[in-house]
Known about the structure:
Number of helices: 12
Largest sheet: 2 strands, antiparallel
Helix content: 55-70%
Structural class: mainly alpha
Strand order of the largest sheet: 1-2
Amino acid sequence: xxxxxxxxxxxxxxxxxxxxxxxxxxxxxxxxxxxxxxxxxxxxxxxxxxxxxxxxxxxxxxxxxxxxxxxxxxxxxxxxxxxxxxxxxxxxxxxxxxxxxxxxxxxxxxxxxxxxxxxxxxxxxxxxxxxxxxxxxxxxxxxxxxxxxxxxxxxxxxxxxxxxxxxxxxxxxxxxxxxxxxxxxxxxxxxxxxxxxxxxxxxxxxxxxxxxxxxxxxxxxxxxxxxxxxxxxxxxxxxxxxxxx
Length: 245
């Protein structure tokens, strides 16, 4: 084959490589940007780092479930599904005393177990439900706590402690109108309760009733309880009034 012929053949091959038939074998240069679809697929396929807190959270939830075994909260009240057969008020009092000791020692899960046992030993023991609810609040289980306080109130409608804690729990849930109504009921039962006046003052402020807030500020002060200075500053800024104490 002559040099001229070989040159012509190389030219033909070059033309063919530039055509459609050779497009699929083209190799991208390093400077070229990969297609957007490939970037998206690669990102989605990358493994996600696990939440290092998840095992601990799972353990805490398992312990919580074990502590309230035998109780159901789904109805908004506490229902004893597994009563302790053959036990009664004396056993419930012993479990409650144990729970109070544990709560004092900041052993909250243990306290929760004891109060749950007290309720299971005597489903009509209102004070045990109040203690159960207080402990549930410390565990961040606010809706469960409200169910416990509500149950106590079904047993003892005049329980000031149950109603006070129910009011505070409603406020934690952002249900301030209901919280105000419950705390007003507390004052109907115990008009000299200074902390109830203080709580009402704060909640009324947040619902826009500055006048009502001032009334309860003064009532709390008359009973020897000074509301937080930061709150008073907010109230003064929103609704200053002559002669406020």
